[in-house]
Amino acid sequence: MTATESTDAADESGLLPGDWEMVIGLEVHAELATNSKMFSPARNSFGAEPNTNVHPVCLGLPGTLPVVNARAVELSIRIGLALNCTIQRCIWARKNYFYPDMPKDYQISQYEEALNVDGWLELPSGSTVRIERAHMEEDTGKSTHVGTSGRIHDAGYSLVDYNRAGVPLVEIVSHPDLRGPEQAKEYVEELRSILVAVGASDGKMEEGSLRVDANVSVRPKGADELRTRCEIKNVNSLRSIGRAIEYEARRHVELYEAGERPVQETRHWDEEAGRTRAGRSKEEAEDYRYFPDPDLVPIDPSPEWVDEIRAALPALPRERRQSLVERGGTAQAAAIAVQRDLDRLALAAIEAGADAERVLTHVANNLAVEGAEALDPEHFADLVKAEIEGSLTATQAKQVLAEMVETGRGPAAIAAAHGFEAMDTSELATILEGIIAEHGEEWQRFVDGDDKARGKLQSFFTGQVMKATRGQADGKAVAELLRDRLATS
Length: 489
Ligand code: MN
Fold this sequence. Notes:
elongated, about 500 residues, Arc Repressor Mutant, subunit A, three-stranded antiparallel beta sheet, 16 helices, 3 domains, 14 strands, binds manganese (II) ion, nine-stranded mixed beta sheet, alpha+beta
């Protein structure tokens, strides 16, 4: 998502025909960044050889008993606190259904009493999205259906990998407060930033650490009814989330306008065809035969423990953007810096005396590179100061900065190695005099000319100085020299 989308409320009212509006609620599954699984000592790591991160508990072998991972509970509470939820006593429930990648034939989840309830999240553009609950559960394994569509019904055979079975998850369920695809994407981006900021998840959508299901319905603008919704499953990129929601909402409007109505069902997003397709008809909660898991005791976090976790929470993205804005950054520049996780670097450089605007310009334009976060803030500040003083031109500063990230060296050493020495003004003045002598006719026209002619000749003389100095002169210094020289002509 671009910063513009994340800092200005997007106008999405034109996306649907007529007087319809979208009603969107998101369910986001986040894998927790623990070392081991939710109920077993098997490793929780992505990308291992299939079926190597396993243990009798996550394989559902008879006679095994789950043991709760305390770290997973702590990370779940961090999420609840960051989302302004009430943290409460909760119980584990069995959600019963059959799927080959779930060896127990039930998933341990939370149903009646979830750990985190009744929270909210404020989007960078200002809207508030209510959080219904953020409950703990375990992930399922992963099936690969080998066939043309990748779907089970036309697969030649299927493979199953239990490495993911039992990985700790938090499922964050929003109220249907979102009104368009851009806002939904903004919500996911902000939620992702929060999860990463509190260390609860790595937030990598491409590795499945963050998976989004979208509940979509439409209604006449201004109505407060909730109409039949469809749930679009596991859309795996921000871009697809936006496209899938827009497609689905249009489909509903078309149905209503044709005098029909959508049926409640699960649908799958087909990225290539750019459309959703009907999956299974939606189960109601009672189909899962939820009941309290007899193998696990309730979790009742003590107020002291919750306070301790709250006190240790790092600054959240919203506060981090605010600190940059207070030091002179624009809302948009601050959003980019926080999104890239470079806001601490930017703040430290500003604290070290660098110009805030220039620091944030570099963060936005020149630091979207690996290793940028390791930049020494003092070095970064020195570079920006040199640039502001005019001893490095903007082009030189960009080049020096790139090498600072690559090599970890300071700006002075790199500038010296390139011969980017500060040109002192008297040296520049001498060069300019030589150019004036050589181009007397142009100079006379510059002195006599109107504003338009002068602008062109200004560029001409600046160009000549740059050529004579092989680009090392500072543009601002040249402009000042020309102005002074003109005043005395
Ligand atoms: Mn779930």
